[in-house]
Fold this sequence. Notes:
Helix content is 11%, strand content 33%. The N and C termini lie far apart (56 Å). It has 3 domains: 37-376, Neuraminidase (6 Propeller); 397-453 and 509-534, Orthogonal Bundle (Cytochrome Bc1 Complex, Chain D, domain 2), CATH 1.10.760.10; 458-503, SH3 type barrels (Roll), CATH 2.30.30.100. By secondary structure, it is mainly beta. The chain contains 6 helices and 32 strands. The strands form 7 sheets. A 5-stranded antiparallel beta sheet has the order 1-24-23-22-21, with no helix packed on it.
Amino acid sequence: MNYFASNRRIMLxxxxxxxxxxxxxxxxxxxxxxxxxxxxxxxxxxxxxxxxVVKLNLVxxxxxxxxxxxxxxxxxxxxxxxxxxxxxxxxxTDNDGLEDQAFLFCDVSEDGLxxxxxxxxxxNALYVGASxxxxxxxxxxxxxxxxxxxxYFSDIPxxxxxxxxxxxxxxxxxxxxxxVLTTDSWNASPAKDPDGLRGSLLRFDGSELxxxxxxxxxxxxxxxxxxxxxxxxxxxxxGNPTEELNIAVQNAYYGHNPEKYKNxxxxxxxxxxxTYDVAPSGIEFATPDETGxxxxxxxxxxxxxxxxxxxxxxxxxxxxxxxxxxxxxxxxTDLPKLSDxxxxxxxxxxxTQVGQTDYWYQALDQPDGAIYRLIPAEWVETEVxxxxxxxxxxxxxxxxxxxxxxxxxxxxxxxHATDGKTELLGPNLKDIARVYNRExxxxxxxxPNKRIKPSMAPTRLVLSNGDVLVGRVVNADENQLKIMVVGxxxxxxxxxxxxxxxxxxxxxxxxxxxNDATEEERNALLxxxxxxxxxxx
Length: 537
């Protein structure tokens, strides 16, 4: 018996019995008092602007199970998707102002689809981005549940790789739909993609598809500003040296997977590198004011660091000549594993906390995750933001020199560059202080097999002549793959020569690297690595 499927069915059945035949109620606006909200505030979240951070206590006919996407729908109701396939509205049924019940809208798994990677509404229809199609769900009888659906777009290269997503669904005012197909650069067996759609920003008007821009890696979210410019985030890794905020430019190339786009134009740089946290996951512009517009950003945090995650914002201003300036600010920290955000009509910020998942970000056999609401509240006491850079800026030069010597003596430079640009076998360490604190970084060095970032996982190839290659796939198509092996050599391997290929869940970095190092040497190495973010090397 499939325990996960059976357990999920039982939980859904019980929830359905509790709220059978109930229709979602009409929503009413409510105001909040300090007395009503203060007891509900999550005390573990650090707040730098005046928001009351509340975890919503939701019951109903859906179990909250690794919620991933959230979008504001008709009548200003929030709709959420689970990693297990359910999409549901969350509503306030007792008129206290806080959503307390979840009502099933549809279940994409019933249509054979994986978890939604993106959702957006247009004309009361819900557009859902799945791995192999964009599907539209309709509630024609207005009872709060979808009663029909149809495929809107399906010309998508698809190989069932868990990292194949259709993300960032965003409508322009004229009805054109923009979306991104995530890169296939880390897929050792990608689907045929003669038009180079994977790794592209696409525009679809309902009949014609346009490849709007190329060189994208993983774009979870996009948002139009007040002037009509489309902003999008792209994640660090695979040739992207930073977490990026970009503006979409027609026919532009953004730097990822140059092998796939051999005749690409010059790279378009990000308008700003996002530095407050790791793995931006959702963005949305707020209504502009007299001086500019706030872009809110949710952050997932480092992979498998289950207590990491945050919300930030970028203050965006645009002068009369169309020139932009950007100021990045923190909002909250220690709100872990955020997958998406949406803005409420009252200025609230809703975020999905996906919770703990497996290596490929798929649901485990027990529910996890939550939905939080950040409610504007002038009485909230805020903190002064501390970037928590563990690097000792006043560390003695001799200590940093000792750390650099250890980095050289242990040949760390053979796999790790420190310039923020060069891609070697291992991650570039220029901004490692932004990714890990001191304790986390030491753990990554001592136990490299404990957590392996999927895009850094090695692949083992057995060739038809008996040779074995182990390295990191940096590019692949239907004819060959390029694999980076020890020494940072990139080898071209024809698929005709591959007898077996397998992802190996073991780091290319060996354990015990610092077993014979003294405490002084370990600390010096950490000081050196964490100081790289402050250097101009």
